[in-house]
Write a structure and sequence with these properties.
The chain contains 12 helices and 12 strands. The chain has 322 residues and is of the alpha/beta class. The strands form 2 sheets. It has a 7-stranded parallel beta sheet with strand order 8-7-6-9-10-11-12, with helices on both faces.
C-alpha cells in the first residue's frame, strides 16, 4: 500500500507516518505543482493526502489504484469530489480540528480593528504620536453588531465569545434552523440585511460553486461606511477586486483578512499597501495541537479505507455508494 502527500505544507510528517506505519503502508512526500507531477509520483498510489495542490478530474482518472483522497483541513475545494465519487474514491476532510483556533483568530482580528490596535501601535512607534483621539471614534462593544456569514461550527464558537464580551450577533445562513439560532440567541437575517446592519462582517462560508464571489460589489456597497469585514473562511468567497475598490474609495472602513483569492499573496497585491487592511498568512487554523490533530485525522481517513472500513469523515455526494 502506498500513500502520497501531494504538496508540502508542514515541517514534518511524523503524525502521518505513525498512522501508516501501523498498517504497513508506505508514505511518499512530494511537493507537486502540476497535474502531471501528481500523476507521475502517484501513478500506483492507493491514497492521496492533499493540502493546496489541485486534485482534478484528470488526476483522479489517471490513478487506477486510488481509493481515497483526504484533505488537510475542512474545505475540499482543491479536490474534484464529483469525479472522485464517480470513480468510487472516498474524499475525506477534517471538519472538527480547529474550531477554537479559527474562532480565536477571527476574534483577535475583530478586536484589533474594533480597538484600532494595529493603527495605534503604528502611530506610536512610527509617527511618535501619543493620542488615541487621532483614531477616534472607538466604540463600546455593546453598541456594535457582528454579522456572521454562515453559522457553522466555527461561527458558533465565535458567536459565544463575541456575546461574552458584549457584541450583538446576527447571522445569515440558509441551512441554519430557527431552533439553532434561538439556542445561540442569534437573529437570522438575509444577507442584504446583515450587510446593512453589521458594524463588523465576519465571513465563515465554505468555498463552493455557489459561494464563489458570493460577497460581491452589490453586497459590499450595502455596508456602513464605518464598518469592516473579516474573512477567516475562504478567500474567493469575497470578490477581491470589488473589496479593493471599496477600500480605495473609502466605502467601508477596512478589512482583516486571513485568506485571499490567490495564495500566497502577490507582492504587488494592492491589499498589502493599504493602511486600513490587516493581513495574516492563512494562519487561523494553526496551533501545535490543532496541527497534530489534523494530520492524524487526515491520515486516518485513508488508513480506514485501506483497511476496508468507512472513514470517519467523508464528503462524497449522496449518490456515492461503495
Amino acid at each position: 500500500m502506498k500513500v502520497v502527500v501531494t504538496d508540502i505544507t508542514f515541517n514534518d510528517y511524523e503524525e502521518e507516518k505513525k498512522v501508516f506505519d501501523a498498517i504497513g503502508c508506505e508514505l511518499i512526500i512530494k511537493d507537486c505543482k502540476t497535474e502531471d507531477e501528481i500523476i507521475e509520483v502517484a501513478k500506483d498510489a492507493d491514497g492521496l493526502l492533499n493540502a493546496a495542490a489541485q486534485v482534478t478530474r484528470r488526476v483522479i482518472e489517471s490513478l487506477p489504484n486510488l481509493k481515497a483522497v483526504s484533505r488537510y483541513g475542512i474545505g475540499v475545494d482543491t479536490i474534484d469530489t464529483e469525479a472522485a465519487s464517480e470513480r468510487g474514491v472516498y474524499v475525506g476532510n477534517v471538519p472538527d480540528y480547529c474550531h477554537a483556533e479559527v474562532s480565536d483568530h477571527a476574534l483577535a482580528l475583530i478586536l484589533s480593528f474594533a480597538r484600532k490596535i494595529v493603527v495605534l501601535n503604528y502611530n506610536t512607534k512610527t509617527k511618535h504620536t501619543w493620542s488615541v483621539f487621532d483614531e477616534a471614534p472607538i466604540r463600546r462593544f455593546s453598541t456594535q453588531t457582528v454579522g456572521l456569514v454562515s453559522f457553522g461550527n466555527i461561527a458558533r464558537s465565535l458567536c459565544k465569545k463575541l456575546q461574552a464580551i458584549g457584541f450583538k450577533v446576527i447571522a445569515s445562513d440558509p441551512y441554519c434552523s430557527q431552533e439553532l439560532a434561538r439556542e445561540y440567541d442569534v437573529e437570522l437575517v438575509s444577507m442584504e440585511e446583515l450587510m446593512k446592519r453589521s458594524d463588523i462582517v465576519s465571513v465563515h462560508a465554505p468555498l463552493t460553486k455557489e459561494t464563489h464571489h458570493f460577497i460581491n460589489e452589490e453586497l459590499i456597497n450595502l455596508m456602513k461606511k464605518d464598518a469592516f469585514i473579516v474573512n477567516t473562511g475562504r478567500g474567493p468567497v469575497i470578490d477581491e477586486k470589488a473589496l479593493v475598490n471599496a477600500l480605495k474609495e473609502k466605502k467601508i472602513a477596512g478589512a482583516a483578512l486571513d485568506v485571499i483569492e490567490v495564495e500566497p499573496i502577490d507582492p504587488n497585491n494592492p491589499l498589502i499597501q493599504m493602511d486600513n487592511v490587516i493581513l495574516t498568512p492563512h494562519a487561523a487554523f494553526y496551533s501545535e495541537e490543532s496541527c497534530n490533530e489534523m494530520k492524524r485525522k487526515a491520515a486516518q481517513n485513508i488508513a480506514d479505507v485501506l483497511l476496508g472500513k468507512e472513514p470517519k469523515y467523508w464528503v462524497n455526494n449522496k449518490e456515492f455508494v461503495k
